[in-house]
Design goal:
Layout: H1 3-30, E1 37-39, H2 45-48, E2 60-67, H3 74-88, E3 94-101, H4 105-115, E4 124-129, H5 131-139, E5 154-158, E6 164-165, E7 167-170, E8 175-177, E9 180-181, H6 185-219
Helix pairs in contact: 3-6
Length: 222
């Protein structure tokens, strides 16, 4: 190999290759695909429930339905806690809302103690609601899989504008993903966790773009 060729290789590695990497990354950010909305205008829980203590607006929320038998989804909630909740505990405006029938208060308290044995529970919200409140809230998801005794094996991801997020082409099969299977560690770890990350990045990218536009307006005197 001649000295000239060696110099060309060194030049490529030092200057051109990093530039190509930068351009690829920049293009990826600009063409970033947002997490799809699968149902718009979900009823905020503050509207379905008289209590104003909880709300979906301005939060990134994972919603679960425990129904009449809390123990049916017990293992699923433990999965959710380990694979998703603990990963986002320190993220702003993150919460998990778990709805249950009012008569199951004792069972819920036991469940909270079990989950909270090794977990900071500050962003777990357990909400007692009537049958009518749960059904009205769930019906706004426009999901054709009915609740069974007011419970579901799915966890649902809701954004700050109270829209249901998911996937339009799940696993390349052309079907919509409305909720994530609580009993599948692979789905919670490989889909829900990733989709929450995408949603946070979406808001971060929007925040950066907003600040960039503000700076541009200041430069032109607007």
């Amino acid at each position: 190999m001649t000295n000239r060729n060696k110099k060309r290789i060194v030049l490529f590695l030092l200057f051109i290759f990093p530039l190509i990497c930068f351009l690829i990354l920049s293009t990826g950010e600009n063409n970033f695909t947002k997490l799809p909305v699968v149902s718009e205008n979900i009823i905020d829980i503050s509207q379905a429930n008289n209590s104003k203590k909880f709300q979906l607006k301005e939060h990134i929320s994972i919603v679960c339905f425990l129904g009449d038998n809390v123990n049916i989804n017990k293992s699923g909630l433990l999965n959710l806690n380990e694979k998703v909740y603990k990963k986002f505990l320190d993220y702003k405006k993150f919460q998990i809302l778990a709805f249950y029938s009012k008569r199951n208060e004792q069972e819920v308290q036991k469940l909270k103690k079990e989950i909270g044995a090794f977990t900071d529970m500050q962003k777990w919200k357990f909400i007692a609601a009537s049958k009518e409140e749960i059904e009205v809230f769930y019906s706004s998801f426009s999901f054709d899989e009915p609740l069974v005794n007011l419970s579901s094996s799915k966890a649902f991801l809701i954004d700050k504008n109270v829209n249901l997020r998911g996937r339009l082409n799940d696993d390349g099969k052309g079907g919509k993903l409305y909720g994530y299977n609580l009993n599948s560690v692979a789905e919670l770890n490989g889909k829900l966790k990733d989709d929450v990350k995408v949603l946070y990045y979406e808001y971060y990218a929007a925040f950066k773009e907003k600040n960039k536009n503000k700076a541009n307006r200041k430069e032109v005197g607007l």
